[in-house]
């Protein structure tokens, strides 16, 4: 894990879609994360952390 990943994780906890956007750009995962964050903040965080930590 590098410094950039740690920054992405911190951003993902504060604003999950931004963390996903920094990792994958404007893709399906980004739009899915927006929907999950709107439906519930915790699912958005979990999805963002999953995307960041598995790539």
From TrEMBL:
It holds the Pfam family Pmp3. The chain crosses the membrane at residues 6-24, 31-53. InterPro entries: PMP3. One of its GO terms (cellular component) is membrane. Keywords: Membrane, Transmembrane, Transmembrane helix. Its main location: membrane. It is found in: Membrane. It comes from the Eukaryota. Belongs to the UPF0057 (PMP3) family. This is Uncharacterized membrane protein YqaE, similar toBlt101, UPF0057 family.
């Amino acid at each position: 894990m590098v410094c950039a990943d740690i920054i992405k994780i911190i951003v993902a906890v504060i604003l999950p879609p931004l963390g996903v956007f920094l990792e994958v750009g404007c893709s399906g995962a980004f739009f899915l994360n927006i929907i999950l964050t709107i439906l519930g903040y915790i699912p958005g965080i979990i999805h963002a952390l999953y995307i960041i930590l598995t790539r």
